[in-house]
Amino acid sequence: MTTLLDVRDLKVRFALPKPSLFAPQPFLEAVRGVSFTLERGRALGIVGESGSGKTTAAMSTIRLVPAAGGEILFDGEDLLQLDDEAMRARRRDIQLIFQDPYSSLNPRARVVDIVREPMDLMNIGDADSRLARVKELFELVGLRPDQLNLFPHQFSGGQRQRISIARALTTNPRLLVCDEPVSALDVAIQAQILNLLARLKRELGLSYLFISHDLGVVRHLCDDVAVMYLGQIVEQASREELFDTPKHPYTQALLAAAPSLARRKSKGYVRPLKLSGDPPSPINPPKGCAFVDRCPLAQDLCRQEQPVLKPNGASQVACHFASE
Ligand SMILES: Nc1ncnc2c1ncn2[C@@H]1O[C@H](COP(=O)(O)OP(=O)(O)OP(=O)(O)O)[C@@H](O)[C@H]1O
After folding, report:
1. In this structure, are 48 and 28 located in the same domain?
2. SS3 call for 201
3. Which domain holds residue 272?
4. Residue 178 and residue 165: Cα distance in Å, rounded?
5. ipTM metric
6. pLDDT of residue 324
7. Which atom belonging to ligand 1 lies closest to the Cα atom of 213?
8. Residues with Cβ within 6 A of ligand 1?
9. Which ligand 1 atom lies nearest to the CA of residue 65?
10. Which residues form the ABC transporter domain (predicted)?
């Protein structure tokens, strides 16, 4: 396996309005030292509750949100060190798919123009080759050639997501960042789009950074999974390892909340833990473990010392007392 993306100690913080002129600048710590690797041809799912920092981590990985620190090695080159022009050139390799295809597609443009636009903006090929590529991509994503001149409102939600995917593929990217790409779709349509993404990954050797709050969706598509909690990764493992033997009490609670995903066999013991309460505020986050107030394993050490990700079996887990 070769590594496409190697993110090290990524930090993102947002400046908040000052309560008064002379008060210190308050910050919201949205991503607090996140590290992960994504191998070529694989899909890494990032899961976690709303507000855990999934979107911010992914957007800062591709420099759509500025990072406050860290390294983002794409093919060995640190994206944070690139000037704007070099970064623009890199954008060909990295494309985005959003949750709501309708709001990301220009309602007044014909879909042929929508799909072609990235090639126009990046000056890829001539008019004929661009049109040929749009037709090819239409077929690849399961749209018909006679639909080329229609407008977005003439398509269903699932078809609109196919249009977004075709558009994202025009530049021959190597990495697709998918932010809740099927959350707005009916369950049956979700499966179709996930199957399409899985096929494209196989056929084109694409890598995905796949953000979702839905563990079922992640299990369908992703090879590896990172679980985020208050701006940090608390567990990272292969799909099998994560769903069969979840180790962090937060991962166990997430799985226990989705009984259809918990393993039938006793191999992975999933504590019947119910999550109550909310995560702490990302403004002045706690010094120790952020999960401590909701955790059945919590001890004094957890309040004093932040656990770091370390190997636990075949997984990486940030917990002082995680099950082995
Ligand atoms: N532009 C911003 N300014 C200030 N705070 C922000 C901004 N964008 C995000 N945040 C905060 O950063 C934290 C992480 O948000 P983020 O959207 O990355 O989480 P998420 O896990 O993707 O959640 P969701 O699934 O709801 O999108 C949250 O506390 C959010 O309120």
Report:
1. yes
2. helix
3. 236-324
4. 10
5. 0.97
6. 74
7. 25
8. 14, 28, 30, 48, 50-56, 213, 282
9. 1
10. 7-255
